[in-house]
Queue: 2 jobs
Job 1
Amino acid sequence: MKDRPRRLRTTAAMRALVAQTHVLPQQLIYPAFVREGDGDPTEITAMPGQFQHTLDSIRALACELVEAGVGGIDLFGVPDQVNKDAAGSQAWAPAGILNRAIEAVRAEVGDELVICADTCLDEFTSHGHCGVLNNQGIVDNDATLDLYARMALAQAQAGAHMVSPSGMMDGQVEHIRTVLDTHGFTDVSIMAYSAKYASAFFGPFREAVASTLCGDRKTYQQDPANRKEGVREALLDAAQGADIVMVKPASHYLDVLADVAQVVDIPVAAYQVSGEYAMIEAAARNGWINREAAIDESLVSIARAGADVILSYWALEYARRS
Ligand code: PBG
């Protein structure tokens, strides 16, 4: 027999030599939550090992990420319930928790990490939706765009290198790009959550940000049944000026990720979301899965499908052990 593919699998050194996909710490982004108030960071029950940080602990975390060689951090704000309102105005208030967190991290690590911010209102609205509601209680696309622009501007002013619109409003990338440019932030980049599906795998995230959402996001996030639509969304965002397009969630959407990676000529990100994290952690806690091997396999699979950048709650741990 001439063709014996097993020859290249004979030893660990041989397998390493011919491995076709590598996940490097520098291509990982760590999503992190920052809440208002002092005290110790609060562990998130549904995401063991992940925390709602304080302004103090997020600074320390940022230093650890730099030391481990992680590429970036994506910051999410968790305001006190009393600071939420129908429009989500703490999202663009300079003293809002997310903007203060951006400022704190930038002051701590400067340009050593790519500092990204989630540009979406759901953490800040009293109703938990990603935009403002019209008279019928439906998220009003065009009225929301101006609020995203204000939020992105506040994030740039606070020191974000990259804003990350994740609310799935039509036209959000173009609107944000215009406002950033008008105010001189031509170098602040946009990582667009382009193909974002209305997913049950965001479940644990709702606890992480103390979400008040009732109902669902199906009128703005995509239907999991739609593959081509993911490509359509990514192409629209690229045309509107996105610097990076994202597919989210990652593991259950590798087909969409591969499609998007084929058609765009800008970097593609994939977000390994809270539910993907929680499932492996829970199975590992029960002794049902080899935790590290499952984490590594999940990350390499996302990279193999075409992700240049991966958002993962395991970014720090993975970087430390690679
Ligand atoms: C919206 C946002 C969500 C996530 C990231 N940005 C929640 C949602 O769309 O319902 C989910 C991330 C995760 O599950 O890890 N601001």
Job 2
Amino acid sequence: MKMNFATLTEWGIPESECPAVFAGPCSAETEEQVMQAALALDKLNVRIFRAGIWKPRTRPGAFEGVGDIGLPWLKRVKEETSMKVATEVASAAHVNQVLKNSIDVLWIGARTSANPFLVQEIADALHGRDVAVMIKNPINPDLGLWMGAIERIYKAGIRKIAAIHRGFSSYTKNRFRNQPEWQLPVDLKRQFPDLPLINDPSHIAGKRELIFDLCQKALDLNYDGLFIESHVDPDKAWSDARQQITPEQLGDMLNKLVLRKAQSLDEVFLHSIEELRAKIDKYDQDLIALLSERMLVAQTIGKYKKLHNITILQQDRWNQIMTKNITQGEQNGLSADFLTHVFKSIHEESINHQTQVMKGGY
Ligand code: PEP
Ligand code: MN
């Protein structure tokens, strides 16, 4: 399906203010807290004010949002500042409330975009309405599910659509609250080249110290906007306290971010890049040739294993390969993470080739 998405400029965000900044507290808590954040953020380059009214909490008992009473607070933000306002919807009932209260931008949260029934219900409630809708990635790293949610909203006649990359859940917790898996949004952009893509560093990071680097990375990957949680007193926030920053910290951060152009027409630059890219292409060809030779050897090993009725997986040998190559690779400036990925894939491919040998395919 050929999709014609509106640009952020068509949302009313001037081109000079792109990449666009969307900011506001995780949750609307009180009218005063909302207005304090809004007035401070309005002085920065923030064009769209965010605040959750209905909060999807993983476990019951946490603060689940102020509900409908928060809608007039957002209306006030719209009237008293130059910003548009955005909130999260998770059902047709939420959509109807939001439309009645002239909220400009809706977003579908990560737990909701993982559920096609709910996304369809929201799409039906939005049918033919002129609002902007941002669709967060589903909590699980499933590109099809994210695309499906976008397609459902598009089919309801909405053209102002953006995707928000907020990271993906994982069982093991490490540096990030939600793993960024940058390849996924990059793949989404390949599928929908005109779709505005916005980064939500707050929910990826889970802690404020990591937000700056994530923003810079998103800008370097050509994102169209940043969606950042900002609260006047972050440590006292009723939800997501660790990841919120003050409007002042946000202002400092925005000043420090380096904005780079997507392209340059400078002759010297273009020439140097071309030369370097030719080198990269040559290395890629060499890598393919080497990997293919390596697989041929693996196949021959497979033939011996078959002859002697030996299993394909030889755990000790595999452990040795990993340890040796990670150590050597690290000595050559490659990260253990990268080496693990590469050698796991190579091993998997070898196993596939040897499986074919066992089946008599080679
Ligand atoms: C939010 O933006 O406050 C939120 C609940 O986000 P997510 O759906 O990404 O968890
Ligand atoms: Mn939040």
